[in-house]
Specification:
Blueprint lengths: L4 H11 L8 H14 L18 H4 L2 H8 L7 E5 L11 E5 H5 L7 E4 L2 E4 H6 L7 H9 L4 H6 L9
Antiparallel strand pairs: 1-2, 3-4
Length: 160
């Protein structure tokens, strides 16, 4: 005999798949599915609308997503696609900080010098660079050679 609590508990347990519907990882998984699959989602045009998909394993199973990605390492991490032109899958996703993600945007200006390709920001922080980011950007916009733009020391009162 029961007051009804047992029925409530057994019904709840029977309906729980993973017990993580309140977890941040679950919200992230739902957001990925929405922006890749739901044409009414405001982010669809930048994801599903341009061919970014979610792997079938992840699309059909939060448990598989969580098994592959694991817990979010910190509140400052979010999911990142390693290669921006590819979809969400185990081999193309990782947890990354905002700073890491800022280096992996379609709008970044990539620059190849000394046999290496980096973003303009990364080059401006490189030990070989003798100028600030804005100077480096200005030099490149007026046609300077990449390696010269990076290594030439800016003289006082010089625009570039």
């Amino acid at each position: 005999k029961s007051c009804g609590c047992l029925l409530k508990e057994t019904t709840t347990l029977r309906n729980i798949k993973h017990g993580m519907s309140n977890a941040l990882e679950y919200d992230i998984w739902c957001s990925i599915k929405e922006r890749c699959c739901n044409k009414k989602n405001k982010g669809f045009k930048n994801y599903g609308g341009r061919g970014i998909s979610i792997s079938p394993e992840w699309k059909n199973s939060f448990e598989k997503f969580y098994e592959d990605m694991g817990p979010k390492p910190s509140p400052g991490h979010s999911i990142e696609r390693i290669e921006n032109s590819r979809g969400y899958s185990k081999d193309n996703c990782k947890w990354a900080t905002r700073e890491e993600q800022s280096l992996n945007k379609r709008s970044n200006h990539m620059l190849t010098a000394f046999g290496e390709t980096k973003t303009l920001i990364e080059w401006s922080e490189d030990d070989r660079c003798n100028v600030r980011y804005d100077t480096l950007r200005a030099r490149l916009s007026i046609g300077w050679d990449c390696e010269k733009a990076i290594t030439s020391v800016k003289k006082k009162n010089q625009f570039c």
